[in-house]
Design goal:
7-stranded mixed beta sheet, Dehydroquinate synthase-like, alpha domain, globular, single chain, alpha/beta, Rossmann fold, 6-stranded parallel beta sheet, 17 strands, 601 residues, 3 domains
Length: 601
């Protein structure tokens, strides 16, 4: 889902009027770009879906449908009456069927009821036939609006305000699965309509299900960012965690704006920059200049590059230097670098003064699509990778795509492994798109930004549903049980095996293991390995330089994995491309048999 733009309306004096000729042309272009898909507005009662949707439909020259009105017409009674006579379950079933019919009737603007998008079948149908936009509003705004209309059956309680807040807590993580998000406050409806159109014009091309151009088709040229159009070349992906909500900003030359961005989220705060020796040479001067321009006091803490810095000794030094720099609890830790720096700095921020805010500025592809998002912070133990840490969400993520120009090809490929992972987990069309467009991604073309945005959007949705990995967030560990064991047995020597390479080999293993157990077809495992090798990534244990460990040491390392429960192994396995699942209690004997096959023992 793209970023939430702060333009909106519920102005009752705002009246429809014929659009200007230039707007008519723009509207026609946008309708064509939608390729027959409907625009579906989702969100809470009182978010403005009906009033804004009606104006948007008039501007685009599309029919407008209010799902609640259609339901009332079909039932011959009001929604309150349906609830009173038949109950909510009856209403929801009818709502699902009505929305399916509306979406099958052709392209239109559809305003849904507040609970419609919560139904997974309805979400799937909307994704198939439409583009979803979440109109998000604060609780206070919603309360003011819904008090004007007493026909809200879910609020017929002793404490409507508390009920509304409980609905918000339950529904907002699901609404965050929508394709786009815009903030609904006050202002003329025209502002909101223009905002929606702007968002769709910029964002439609980032939706994988709309990417079907053949590989040989030239990608559209992307204008160079200037002061006038820089914002238009940015993608903002929100991570919806209630009061701890933050944004992932993706675009070029964000380091130059970092000071202004940080000053906006934390006025008058100072910053402790944690980075490594390699990144400091390339990017630290630009960041410090940006902080200076914003008048932000800052200190620098530089560690050695590489996985070896994720240790107790370096962690202690980083904490001591942050404290010595007189950073207070209200100040910020800024992680400038790849996954190692992000994990290390984030864990320090979680620990110092019982929790400081921090900002992620990832400078590797792997960090931009994975480790900088979601709040996992950790250092390594001699017993395994990432065993000591905390969940601590950043306040902002700035993914500067221009920083990726300094990556060597091996590091870029390592990051791509995590991009491919999102397609393999639950987005088969995205994996197909990657197979078709990987060359453009590696050439740092427009497809790179699309790939990063899609990956971040996928992870943000999972994190919003399962922040501390109690459920399906574990799917993000596809390939990691194998990969972490390989990294541990190579003593985190990145010259032999870096994290992305370990994940790539792990994903190849996970699919071959799934095929061996009968969960997926061998052809799926072959397809995964073929793509990994096509882009230059390893896919088998034998690809690790100097590998000499047998099945038992690998199995022993796996038993130190964080997902082990009561001494039983957990793996992320697959039923096909984009169809992964959590497999708990996998017998050690089955893993040993598979590893013997893999190693030729």
């Amino acid at each position: 889902m793209t970023g939430a733009l702060d333009l909106s309306s519920d102005d009752p004096t705002d009246r429809l009027h014929p659009p200007e000729p230039a707007l008519l042309s723009r509207s026609a272009d946008l309708v064509q770009k939608l390729e027959g898909r409907s625009i579906v507005l989702v969100g809470m009662m009182g978010a403005g879906k009906t009033s804004i949707g009606r104006r948007l439909a008039a501007t685009l020259g599309l029919p407008f449908v209010d799902a609640d009105v259609e339901i009332e017409n079909a039932a011959g009674m009001t929604i309150s009456e349906i609830f009173a006579r038949h109950g909510e379950a009856y209403f929801r079933d009818g709502e699902r069927r009505v929305i399916a019919r509306i979406l099958a009737d052709g392209q239109r603007v559809l305003a849904t009821g507040g609970g419609a998008y919560i139904n997974p079948v309805t979400r799937d149908r909307i994704a198939e036939k439409g583009v979803s936009i979440w109109l998000k509003a604060d609780a206070d705004v919603l309360l003011r609006r819904v008090r004007k209309r007493p026909n809200r059956p879910l609020l017929h309680t002793r404490d409507p305000e508390q009920t509304l807040r409980e609905l918000i807590d339950a529904r907002y993580p699901v609404y965050a699965l929508a394709d786009f998000c815009l903030i609904s406050r006050e202002g003329p409806h025209d502002f909101m309509v223009q905002s929606i159109m702007d968002t769709l014009e910029r964002g439609l091309e980032t939706l994988p299900r709309l990417q079907h151009a053949p590989k040989e088709q030239a990608m559209p040229s992307m204008p160079q960012a200037t002061d006038a159009n820089a914002a238009a070349n940015r993608t903002v992906v929100p991570v919806e965690l209630g009061s701890r909500r933050y944004e992932i900003v993706i675009g070029d030359n964000l380091l130059a704006e970092a000071g202004a961005q940080i000053a906006q989220i934390a006025p008058k705060a100072a910053c402790a920059i944690v980075t490594d020796e390699t990144v400091a040479q390339h990017h630290l001067p630009a960041l410090e200049a940006s902080l200076d321009a914003a008048g932000i006091r800052h200190a620098r803490i530089v560690v050695a590059a590489g996985e070896a810095s994720k240790c107790w000794t370096t962690f202690a030094r980083v904490c001591d230097e942050i404290i010595a720099a007189r950073m207070e609890r209200g100040d910020l830790v800024v992680a400038l670098g790849g996954g190692v720096v992000g994990d290390l700095a984030g864990f320090a921020a979680a620990a110092i003064r019982r929790g400081m805010r921090f900002v992620q500025i990832p400078t590797t592809l792997l960090a931009q699509v994975d480790s900088s998002v979601g709040g996992k912070t950790a250092i390594n133990s001699e017993h395994g990778k990432n065993l000591i840490g905390a969940f601590h969400q950043p306040s902002l993520v700035l993914a500067d795509t221009s920083a990726l120009a300094t990556l060597d090809p091996r590091e870029f490929r390592a990051g791509y492994a995590e991009v491919a992972k999102y397609g393999l987990i639950d987005d088969a069309p995205f994996f197909t798109w990657l197979e078709q467009n990987w060359e453009e991604i590696f050439a740092r073309g427009p497809a790179l930004t699309q790939a990063i945005a899609t990956s971040c959007r996928s992870k943000a949705a999972v994190v919003a549903r399962d922040e501390t990995e109690q459920g399906d967030r574990a799917l993000l560990n596809l390939g990691h049980t194998f990969g972490h064991a390989f990294e541990s047995l190579t003593h985190f020597n990145t010259a032999r095996l870096n994290h992305g390479e370990g994940v790539a080999i792990g994903m190849g293993c996970a699919y071959r293991f799934s095929a061996k157990l009968g969960h997926c077809a061998p052809e799926d495992a072959e397809r995964v390995e073929r793509h990994l090798r096509t882009v230059g990534l390893p896919a088998r244990i034998s690809d690790i330089a100097g590998w000499n460990a047998g099945p038992q040491p690998i199995l022993d390392a796996m038993f130190q994995d964080k997902k082990v429960e009561r001494g039983a192994l957990t793996f992320i396995l697959a039923r096909g491309i984009g169809q992964t699942f959590i497999a708990k209690g996998v017998p050690a004997e089955a893993v040993s048999d598979f590893l013997r096959d893999e190693l030729g023992h």
